[in-house]
C-alpha cells in the first residue's frame, strides 16, 4: 500500500466499474461534470468522452493528484482543497460557477482520523461516515434536474450509523441503488461497495417522449421505478420461519404470475424502502418471461432483492393498466433485456418502454393514459 492510499484513501476506480457507472447517467445534456474526490481524474476523463462539450471540475486534497491533472491535456478546473472544508462563495456568479449537472464520486471511505463526522443537512445535524458526508456536501453543488452517480461503502445504506442522514436525503432527493454488491475489487482494498444514483428532483419528462402520457398533478398516481435494495447473496440463508420483519422477494419467488416459495424474513431493524399501494415486479436479470411479471395488489410488508425491478403504481387500477400493457406489448418489453452473457434490463430501458407504450402499442384509450404520470427515478 503506498502512502497516498493510506493517507487519503486513494483506491482508484477500476475501468469496468467506471463504464458501468457512466452508463447509468440519465441525462442527455450535461454542461458541467464534477468530482470532489477526483484523484487521477479517471471518472471525469471517461465522462468527457460522452459529453465532450462539458466543463470539468475536480477537487482533491492531495496536491500530487491536482498537479498531475493540471498537466493533463484535457482542460478543466482543478482545485487542491479538503472538499469537506471547501467553502466557495455561494452567491451569484460564484455559485453558478460550481453548480454541476452531473457529479461522479468515489469518495474516501474511512479516513482513520474521522470514523464518524457531524454534518449539517437541511437544518439538522447528523452523525455519518465520511463517504456520506461527501454526498451530503456534494448535493449543495448539484443543479436542479442533475444527478450524482457514486460508489459508496455498503454501510451507507445498510448501517445504523448512516441511516438517519440517508433517510433524510431520501426525503428530498430520489435515491436509487444500482448495484448492492459491486463485483470489482479495488487495488489493495476489500471494502464491500454499492453504486447509487441520486436525482436532485424527479427529472422532467422530455417533451417529445412525454407526449403520449398525460401528466397529472396527483403525485400518488405517479409510477416510480426502482430496484430492490437487498443483496440476494447476503440474505440467501436468512431465517425463513420468523413471524416478524419484511418478506424478501427474489426472482426465484416470481412464478406463474404469483409470489411463491420460501422467503427470507428480514430483521425489523433494517432501514427499509417503504412501498405503498400496488406494484408490478419482474426480474431485472435473466431471460424475460411473461410468467415472471407479477401484479401485487398491496406491497405492505414486502421487500425485494436487487435482482428484482419494482414499478410502484400507487393505485391498483394503475398497476392493472401497467400489467396489461406489458402483456399486450410483450415483444417490445422483451427488447428491454439485453447483454452478451446473462440477460438484464436497466431502469432507463424500462422507463423508455413505459413512455413509449400508448404511441407504440396503440393503447391511448387505456387507463394508463388517463391516470399515469411517469415520474420515477
Ligand atoms: C477513492 S479515491 C477516488 C479517486 C478517483 N475519483 C477515482 O474514482 O479513481 C478518493 C480520492 O479522494 C481524495 N480525498 C481524500 N480525502 C479528501 C478530501 N477531504 N477532500 C478532497 N479529496 C479527498 C484522495 O486523495 C483520493 O484521490
TrEMBL record:
Entry coiled-coil feature ranges: none
Stored InterPro entries: SAM-dependent_MTases_sf, Small_mtfrase_dom
Annotated TM spans: none
Keywords of this entry: Methyltransferase, S-adenosyl-L-methionine, Transferase
A biological-process GO annotation: methylation
Superkingdom assignment: Bacteria
Record flagged with keyword Protease: no
Keyword RNA-binding: no
Molecular function GO labels: methyltransferase activity
The Methyltransferase small domain, residue ranges: 21-151
Pfam families per record: MTS
Protein's recorded name: Methyltransferase
Lineage summary: Bacteria, Pseudomonadati, Verrucomicrobiota, Verrucomicrobiia, Verrucomicrobiales
